[in-house]
What does this fold into?
Amino acid sequence: MWNNEITRQLGIKLPFVGAGMAIVGSPALTAAVSNAGGIGLFCLGPGTPEMLADGIDSIRRLSSAPFGVDFIVEETGFGPATTEAHVEVAIAKRVPLAVFFWNPPEERWISELNRAGIKVWGTAYSVESARRLKALGADAVIVQSHEAGGHVRSDLGAMSLLPAVVDALERTPIIAAGGIADGRTAAAAFMLGAQAVCVGTRLLASDESLASAEYKERLVRAHGDDTVVTTIFGPEWPDAPMRVLKNSSVARSEQGNMPPKQLIGETVVFGRSYKMPANSAVLPTTQTRGDHEEMCLAAGASVAAVRSIEPADQIVRDMMTDAWALIGGNNVKYPPETGRNR
Ligand SMILES: Cc1cc2nc3c(=O)[nH]c(=O)nc-3n(C[C@H](O)[C@H](O)[C@H](O)COP(=O)(O)O)c2cc1C
It folds into this structure.
């Protein structure tokens, strides 16, 4: 039923992208989204190239469907998140898709990946950054709007940003990220000209995500005004705005009371045990001990639509079935060949 430039580009059934989520994502989550007919992304974050290779092998053990690897382009407290060696792993493993997040990738990475037959997408947060990615040769551009959970740069919501980028990029397909967590919001993104949706927060509350049980419960309990964009988190990635659930550490910093320097918990991240400093940006997983009131609980404004923790394949199918019904399904032949509602 769905047939547009994104489904054809990757040979997938549903124009649904499972967002890369370092630390809380998992090979199981990536594989579940791909097995449901969408495309799951796997984001290692600043782990070693060997860990990336292991992650890719794990995905392949769980799925033979296409999937993508998501690279953060940034220097972090753990070192550069993406290096030539990481890109070489993607090429050696012949992953179907590579996605770059936060900063634009090195131009040579794009040509090396393309030469190996790998599709390359970039993530934009404005018309200008989308134009830059198109000029670099991206096969599609993910447009992340202000509602998105986790690290977020855009000042604009999807209603303004998406149509502006769709118009500016003309033939390059656009994928909407931010605020999409049910059939209604997915349908709205398609009506604005997106050819696929990229979903993070809704999948964070899936069985397969590695978020701690308390983190998931807080997502289910949260309302639409329970998130905020802040720069307080991240000795590991300083001064980067993040949308998170409000908690005590956020409230304290809003009142100008910075927390005393102390450890807030312990976890395992990138294969080693880690003592979490105050305002750590490391998200709590099943391996984390500590007080969630002090932790970084990345989540999007779409958290209002998260009402239960479900298997990821169920989430993908429900969202896309509802979106299809709202768009009008076969009756109005949507999405049309161009994928644009013009
Ligand atoms: C918990 C969490 C962690 C995230 N981590 C990453 C990441 O490591 N790499 C990345 O490219 N995007 C990351 N994102 C952003 C997503 O790629 C995506 O843009 C966003 O989730 C879309 O908005 P939504 O949360 O409203 O669905 C993260 C999002 C969340 C909610």
